[in-house]
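Students often ask why we bother encoding 3D structure as a string. The short answer is that it lets us treat folding as translation between two languages. Here is a chain of 568 residues written in the first language.
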Amino acid sequence: MRRGSRLLAPALLALATALVYLPALRNGFVAYDDDLYITQEPALRGGAGLESVRWALVSHAGGNWFPLTRLSWLLDASLFGLDPRAFHASSVALHAFASGVLALALTRLTRAPGPSLFVAGVYALHPLRVESVAWAASRKDVLAGLCAALSLLAYERAAREGGARRHAQVALWTGLGLLAKPVLVTWPFALLLLDAWPLGRLGRDGGLDRARLRAALREKAALFALCAAAAVATIAAQRAGGAVRSLTEFPLWVRGANALASLVDTLSQTFWPTGLAFFYPHPGSDVSLARAALGASILAGVAAAGFAWRRSQPWVLVGWLWFLVLWLPTCGLVQVGQAARADRYTLLPHVGLALVVAFTVASWAGSRRPVRVAAAVAGAATLAACAWLTQAQIRVWQSSETLFTHALRVTPDNHVAHINLGMVLFREGRLDEASAHLGAALRIAPGSPLAAGWLGQVRLAQGREQEALPLLSRALRADPARDDFRLALSSALRARGRAGEAASVLRAAPPASRARPEIQVELAAALVDAGDLDGARAALREAQASAPGDARIAALMEALEQRSAKDR
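And here it is in the second language, the structure alphabet:
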């Protein structure tokens, strides 16, 4: 087959993928990590420069370190400003390109164009992909996916032809993928599975040659070292950001049971993709043990069947283990954040499931032309249905309100959706609606500092200070680093003539917060109200040291000096 013919189907898939995701360009940013990582990030507003590049390389804001992703955001912001259309267009282009590369890599690996195209089509068009592609903050997923596809393409040549240069290319793309998102920490094991099938490098007829296995492991030593380093860096960043909660909040049995129950949910939404949401609340100790048992049965049952069929249908065991290996880092055994699972975690694991389905059907069809035609039509219809559902899911991500409202429709007791919708409504001045959602969040999760703090701010805006003060105090006890809640509480106390208490609240801030000019300015205002002009002057000097060019601080200092002179 000529080169142009081999590239045609992957190119058409990439084009189809771009067209399906084109409506994402009409979506805006959403108030869920887009603000944390993009719209409120000062380094992105200033455009490219040495300081912003340094930020991209070293920042672990949000408990995550992914320098390649931040560099890609910086490029978008430098070229187009903070225009959501540009950010979405970049993600769509990256995903479309990755889909084409994956189709080409799988075709070369398996020498089976039809099933390979279906697998890449599932990767490209399944509705569970929408979160990765239509959410600007999830650029890290599509970048990691593209790097994984390029690594796979390079690995096919390296495995068949050898050579240090080709293996270096595999390491390069794997390393870049880890810098986009460390979800590839188990990638060498996925490549090892391909050595078993379809490459047949570990033995013949489903057998395992130990010498060949040792050689394959030695060959991947550099990849294992890269992944180990990425894992260490990731855990350090997440601990620094307070994102790793497994050892303090959820015991091992809860994490294990949730992982197995989530396996059931993931498989269910793979074959019947409805009820998708941006956030699935973690059940904690209320996790369904029946669903966990079902998950364990499925896991063991498919593995046992794959092992029994390893000689006649090796793709079943390889595809299932691929799914498990790439799902493992995000399955929740090490709990990060509050979610039970996430749609974006299926990006690369889905390739394994699609391999099982596609090659099983192709094997069943065999050389019978009518059956092969029927299988091809069924595959095309499946991908068309996925594309239709994907476009509907893209509309869910149109705005913050559509995203959070949809989540509340499809997930019960979703306190995170209530909190985020309440925040959006509060910023729009829809105080009664915001109050209802934040109150619901607090009933579902009484210990949530965000629910208490934002409801406190709503109460302040409603003129209900007496109700606001205990809510804001409660939020700060749970999360002392929330400077916005601290400033709101101080302002409310000063308004009620309790300037001394306001100053105490500000002085109780963590050192990192105390260094912020906003905290020092508010402290100065509280001290002035309390009659402590010397203390106010000292606070303003600290604020000037942090923000020497701030005109507001200079004006306040001048007014303070004038008042001191008048008092004398």
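Translate back mentally: The chain has one domain: 3-400. Keep this in mind for the problem set.
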